[in-house]
Amino acid sequence: MNTLITDGSDLERAAELLRGGGLVIFPTETVYGLGASAYDARAAYNVFEAKGRPHDNPLIVHVSDPREAENFAYTNELYYRLAGAFMPGPLTLILKKRDNIPPEVTAGGDTVGVRCPSHPVAREFIRLAGVPVAAPSANLSGRPSPTTAAHCIDDMNGRVDAIIDGGECEFGLESTVALITGADSLKILRPGAVTAEALSCVCENVTTSEGLAPGETPLSPGMKYRHYAPKAPLYLLDGERENVISYVKRRLGAGERCLFICYDADAPMFGAAAISLGDEADELLHAHRLFAALRMTDKYGEQNALDAIYTYMPQRDGGISAAIYNRLIRAADHTVIEV
Ligand code: TXA
Ligand code: MG
Question: Against a cut of 0.90, is the pTM above it?
Fold first, then answer.
């Protein structure tokens, strides 16, 4: 299949491809999405095939206006309160679905995730499509989510009908996913840029479902898979900053072929082994760069032998740090080294 790659000047053509049952990758403010009509069972099935995604992991449905959720889901007062505060934006709310959303989209479940992205190209594309757009992140299953069109081309060229290039995604981590559990209650299933603190300003009871007990079934199926994984093993180094730095220096000194995902102040000490996430204090920038950094390690590993990747254990001090921790701990398959 030839993939149409467009800079966004050809949105009408891309929307037509989607309406006709095709797969179209589009930019959002979080990560790129791999879209199909949410009313088309076969197209939704093809999304799973193109990504190599397990069929038990539901897709979220994108709208250009929060009110469009009425067409395929049962909304309520809390939904509109949250939509008023955070949509368009990086929040996905799980609602009971109506019958017109086929089970292929929701992996057989009776709920559907609704997201109204704020990216202008995403909103215009969905509006032109004229149907709600089911879309997971546009990576091959198990790889870091794509934050540039080049990442999408690396993973999906030839597997989709079109890729709309909208430049770098602003946040770089996927949306916050939250389940409405009561008239004034929410459970965060996946942390993102809309933080628990922010949600608490609008909703009385906000809980999070981090960390599963052994044998427990996750409410959000995507959380059980090893996600965002780079090809070489990633280790999170937990300890004082000087200890982290001397640990990586020792490994390099012992001849280990490793990369260090670090901050600007560290980079000069590590030369070609350093990939910087930016200034240490700028957590939004770390989020923006994280997946690109993990993909860089894969590119490096294709040319050179690579034994290990190290990075700091992220602080968990509120804000976006919960989302960074959630992605890194999975990318590292929970391997933390105390230093
Ligand atoms: O920012 C984002 O959310 C991006 C962009 C493209 O919008 N999309 C994205 O989709 O990250 P995906 O499929 O990679 O992740 C969606 C997550 C998965 O963990 C999935 O299990 C969960 O949301 N999810 C989707 N529908 C659900 C449902 N009905 N109930 C519980 N969890 C659901
Ligand atoms: Mg994903």
Answer: yes
